[in-house]
């Protein structure tokens, strides 16, 4: 499962980053282990549709920004409206050599209602 980092886009006093983990398909929310830290929260999220771009290498700020721009440009050309949120999904441990690391940029699609 990937480790996902994203910049918060909520209108709160403390804008920052959050880290999330995706549980395997078929995992029951009621059977998740309960965190022992009050700052860690379990949330069950609705299904969403996203666009994604995979890439190899260490997900540095510079490389991630480049891949985000490529993905947003491709979506714009395809007339796909995207949300302002961007997620960086890292699938490998930090000690794995950078050239072997697999990552994805994921951006939710802004669906018209």
Give an overview of the whole structure:
This protein has 113 residues and is an alpha+beta fold. It has one domain. It contains one helix and five strands, in the order βββαββ. It is globular and about 45 Å long.
List the helices and strands and how they pair.
Layout: E1 3-7, E2 17-21, E3 50-56, H1 61-77, E4 87-90, E5 102-108
Antiparallel strand pairs: 1-2, 1-4, 3-5, 4-5
Beta fraction of the residues? 15-25%
| Helix-strand category | alpha+beta
Number of helical stretches of at least 4 residues: 1
Q: Tell me, what's the shape?
A: globular
Number of separate structural domains:
1
Could you describe the largest sheet, including whether it forms a barrel? 5 strands, antiparallel
**Any idea what the radius of gyration is?**
16 Å
What strand order characterises the main sheet? 2-1-4-5-3
Q: How far is the N terminus from the C terminus? A: 31 Å
Order of helices and strands: EEEHEE
Count of extended strands: 5
Measured as a percent range, the helix fraction is 10-25%
| Average pLDDT reading | 84
Low-pLDDT residue spans: 7-13
How would you concisely characterize the structure shown here?
This protein has 113 residues and is of the alpha+beta class. It has one domain. The chain is built from one helix and five strands; from the N terminus they run E-E-E-H-E-E.
């Amino acid at each position: 499962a990937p480790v996902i980092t994203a910049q918060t886009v909520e209108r709160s006093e403390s804008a920052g980053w959050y880290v999330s983990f995706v549980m395997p398909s078929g995992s029951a929310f009621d059977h998740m282990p309960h965190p022992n830290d009050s700052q860690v929260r379990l949330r069950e999220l609705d299904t969403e549709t996203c666009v994604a771009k995979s890439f190899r290498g260490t997900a540095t700020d510079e490389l991630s920004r480049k891949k985000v721009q490529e993905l947003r440009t491709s979506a714009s050309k395809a007339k796909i409206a995207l949300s302002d949120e961007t997620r960086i999904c890292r699938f490998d441990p930090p000690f794995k050599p950078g050239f072997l690391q697999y990552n994805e940029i994921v951006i939710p699609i802004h669906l018209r209602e």
